[in-house]
């Protein structure tokens, strides 16, 4: 009993030691940091790069970057006065910008337009370039095939989401529209399902970012299903006039209607002249 009492007193004395509280805090921080390192997704930036390609892809992507992108974005993608940094933008942004021909940019306008791809832009080149940029600091990765499959989405739900978040700029059917300061929301008809997903995830140019906490991956797939479904619809009333909306329809109605009234007035006047003659 005496030995037991001495051990209890010894433990109690250690607990009262001035350094005991600091040891407990250090132990707690160590356990917290270790647990986060194990549970955190992604790991290092190099791991993120390898997740989107092989190590050789990163090396090849750096060569392509130096040859075609460094003049604007800097040798290490740190950004310059001409273009922003690419550290942390992710592979999805690279795939969207390069696969649509927006990058490399032809000129420094208010918005980079979609254009034909350069000779060096191949699927493999895009993969390599995306892997290199992903290795610089992570960021949104390119979506998997099932994430952008319209057949697995719900067009009805996607239509509700599209009308709530996108029609202000892109129109009800994705025909696009004008914005301020020379910018515009491009038409969505040329965009592939992957490019639509990547645009929502990265927010290119004037478009806001719709991350997974704002619009979930399943909801993005529903919106893709709606956009691709609208492309297949026919215009029962005749010509869709670009599906731009009531402005175009009103303009055409005004021009056609006014022209018919003018022709009718000329015909009536000519008929009266023949009658009097």
Overview of the structural elements:
By secondary structure, the protein is mainly α. It folds into 3 domains: 13-40; 46-135, Cytochrome Bc1 Complex, Chain D, domain 2; 145-231, Cytochrome c-like domain (Cytochrome Bc1 Complex, Chain D, domain 2). It contains 12 helices and 2 strands. The chain has a two-stranded antiparallel sheet with strand order 1-2. β1 (177-178) and β2 (184-185) form a beta hairpin. α6 (90-99) packs antiparallel against α7.
Summarize the structure.
With 277 residues, the protein is mainly alpha-helical. Helix 4 crosses helix 7, helix 6 packs antiparallel against helix 7 and helix 6 crosses helix 10. The chain contains twelve helices and two strands.
| Amino-to-carboxy terminus distance | 140 Å
Instruction: Give, in spatial order, the strands making up the sheet with the most strands.
Output: 1-2
Instruction: Report the CATH topology name of the largest domain.
Output: Cytochrome Bc1 Complex, Chain D, domain 2
- Radius of gyration over C-alpha positions, nearest whole angstrom: 30 Å
Q: State the helix count.
A: 12
CATH superfamily of the largest domain: Cytochrome c-like domain
- The top level CATH class name of the largest domain: Mainly Alpha
Order of helices and strands: HHHHHHHHHEEHHH
The CATH architecture of the largest domain? Orthogonal Bundle
Strands, total number? 2
The parts where pLDDT drops under 50 for at least 5 residues are: 40-52
User: Multimeric state of these chains?
Assistant: single chain
What's the number of domains? 3
User: Taking all residues together, what is the mean pLDDT?
Assistant: 83
């Amino acid at each position: 009993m005496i030995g037991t009492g001495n051990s209890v007193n010894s433990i109690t004395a250690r607990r009262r030691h001035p350094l005991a509280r600091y040891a407990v805090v250090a132990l707690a921080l160590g356990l917290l940091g270790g647990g986060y390192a194990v549970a955190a997704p992604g790991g290092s930036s190099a791991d993120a790069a390898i997740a989107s390609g092989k190590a050789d892809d990163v090396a090849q992507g750096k060569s392509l970057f130096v040859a075609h992108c460094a003049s604007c974005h800097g040798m290490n993608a740190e950004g310059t006065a001409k273009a922003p940094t690419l550290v942390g933008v992710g592979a999805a942004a690279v795939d969207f910008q390069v696969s649509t021909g927006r990058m490399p940019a032809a000129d420094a306008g208010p918005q980079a337009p979609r254009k034909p791809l350069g000779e060096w832009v191949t699927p493999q080149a895009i993969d390599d370039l995306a892997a290199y940029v992903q290795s610089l600091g992570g960021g949104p990765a390119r979506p998997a095939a099932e994430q952008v499959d319209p057949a697995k989405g719900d067009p009805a739900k996607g239509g509700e989401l599209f009308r709530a978040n996108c029609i202000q700029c892109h129109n009800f059917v994705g025909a696009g529209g004008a914005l301020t300061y020379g910018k515009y929301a491009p038409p969505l008809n040329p965009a592939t399902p992957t490019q639509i997903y990547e645009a929502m995830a990265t927010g290119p140019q004037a478009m806001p970012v719709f991350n997974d906490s704002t619009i979930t991956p399943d909801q993005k797939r529903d919106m893709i299903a709606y956009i691709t479904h609208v492309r297949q619809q026919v215009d029962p009333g005749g010509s869709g006039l670009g599906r731009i909306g009531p402005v175009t329809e009103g303009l055409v109605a005004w021009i056609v209607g006014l022209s018919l009234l003018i022709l009718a007035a000329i015909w009536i006047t000519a008929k009266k002249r023949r009658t009097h003659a």
